[in-house]
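seq:
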Amino acid sequence: MANHTGVDGVVTIGGNTIAELKTFSIEESANTIEDSNLNSTASSFKAGKTSWTASIECHWDETDTTGQGAMTAGAEVTVIFLPEGNTSGDTKYTGTAIITGVSKAIAEEAIISQSFSLQGTGTLTAGTVV
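struct:
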């Protein structure tokens, strides 16, 4: 059984690696369409459209102009999620997304963090690093 730790994870925006990455998550979902009729004794469904969202959290780095700085609210970006790292054969997920939220968290005795919410537009494609 293969498993991995998050230590190798990478996210790129427009081909640029996001600096100070802490966490990221991806959620894929599918709508359902009920196709039951009056004579049905139980509800039945068909698969509908799929969609995906993602979130990214980093230590805030104002010098990362091509990574964190490229993710402004409303921006449409090409994103690649690399949970295993960026070595040939590693799994990757590629898609286009709109940045729907950007937030910073500032607390005493803590590193300032910056979080991003993304709404996928189109499909999220699974593949491998070449």
